[in-house]
Every structure is written in structure tokens, then in C-alpha cells.
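in:
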């Protein structure tokens, strides 16, 4: 019997890329403009997978809706300006991806990050040939499985022997809904204990993924 093709599909922010570093920089730029004290990275990290509004609500408590709207517009404008200035992959990601390639394991990305922000990033990283699904490519975003199943179809890989890897509980829900194996990460933008998500595997480093595959 022919062996079924497996793939490793990743969430982007908080799994491969630490965009929270850029978000943190922007938040503190906005803080400085308002004459407020800067915030620690941890406060930004925790909400970095939830969008600009939630980041700002937690970094600028008790602000009114009018100021929140202005800060959000300023945040997103600044993000567009510096989005590829300092892209930081988590330690071990590059070697892990090289190992996947060496083993003949295909990979792709499914993210809830808009195309507007995702495409400049993957272009800068040299990942344009990697199958990518953003919210604009599906009817329903994660944890709906549509995007993950689309990537696996592009890769010609079987969900049953493939893996979805992410740093947030909804990533694990996405994999479960798609019928893949799931891997939760100890790094990234988790808001609850990653070990509590009922993933098939839990890893502390990107390099540990190879043993799961």
C-alpha cells in the first residue's frame, strides 16, 4: 500500500514569527506620544493574537472609544510602515524548516492574519512558494477547518497523517476539526495553559517538532 503524504501546517504569529516584538514597539511609541509610561512586552504578548483593539484596550486601560479608535488607526498605520523592518523568527524555526525539507515533509501556513499584513512578511522571509491561507481565502476563519483543509489539498497531503502546529487553543481546535494531529507550543501568544488543550503533542522548542513527525 502506498504511504500517505504527510504535511506540517503552521499558524504564523506566535508559532513561527514573534510579531509581538513589533506590536510592543508600536504600543510604546503611542505611549510616549501620550506622555504615558511604557508597558512590558508580556502585556502585549498575551493579546498579540487577538488584534490591535484588544492589545490597545489592555495597554491603555480606561480609554474612551474615540481615543481607542484613533489609537487603533495609528497602530495599524505604523504597523504597515515597519511590518518587515525587524522580523523575528522563534529560535530554532529556520533549522526546523530545513529539517522538514530534508525529510521531504511538505509544509504550509494557515493564519487569521489579513493578507494585507501577511503577504509582505512571507515575501520578506522568502516563503512565497509556501501554500498560505489567510481569512480572505475562506468563508469562515479558524477554528473552522476550511483553511487547513485547503492547504492540505494544495500540498496533496492526507489530514489523517498531517499535523497542525500552533500557540493558541483555537489552533488545536482547528486541527481537531480538520482531522489532523495537533501540536501545541509552549511559546507564543497563548492565554491559557497549552498543556490543557488536548493536543496530540506538546513541544517546548521548534526543533522538538521533528520527533512528533
Amino acid at each position: 500500500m502506498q504511504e500517505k503524504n504527510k504535511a506540517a501546517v503552521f499558524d504564523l504569529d506566535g508559532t513561527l514569527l514573534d510579531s509581538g516584538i513589533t506590536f510592543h514597539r508600536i504600543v510604546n511609541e503611542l505611549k510616549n506620544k501620550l506622555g504615558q509610561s511604557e508597558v512590558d512586552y508580556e502585556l502585549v504578548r498575551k493579546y498579540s493574537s487577538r488584534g490591535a483593539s484588544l492589545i490597545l484596550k489592555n495597554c491603555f486601560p480606561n480609554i474612551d472609544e474615540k481615543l481607542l479608535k484613533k489609537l487603533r488607526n495609528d497602530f495599524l498605520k505604523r504597523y504597515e510602515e515597519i511590518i518587515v523592518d525587524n522580523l523575528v523568527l522563534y529560535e530554532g524555526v529556520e533549522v526546523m524548516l530545513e529539517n522538514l525539507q530534508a525529510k521531504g515533509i511538505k509544509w504550509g501556513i494557515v493564519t487569521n492574519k489579513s493578507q494585507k499584513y501577511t503577504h509582505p512578511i512571507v515575501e520578506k522571509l522568502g516563503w512565497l512558494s509556501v501554500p498560505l491561507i489567510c481569512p480572505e481565502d475562506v468563508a469562515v476563519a479558524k477554528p473552522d477547518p476550511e483553511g487547513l483543509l485547503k492547504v492540505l489539498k494544495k500540498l496533496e497531503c492526507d489530514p489523517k497523517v498531517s499535523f497542525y502546529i500552533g500557540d493558541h487553543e483555537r489552533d488545536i481546535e482547528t486541527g481537531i476539526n480538520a482531522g489532523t494531529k495537533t501540536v501545541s507550543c509552549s511559546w507564543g501568544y497563548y492565554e491559557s495553559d497549552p498543556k490543557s488543550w488536548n493536543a496530540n503533542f506538546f513541544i517546548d522548542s521548534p526543533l522538538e517538532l521533528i520527533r512528533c513527525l
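note: The chain has a mean pLDDT of 95.
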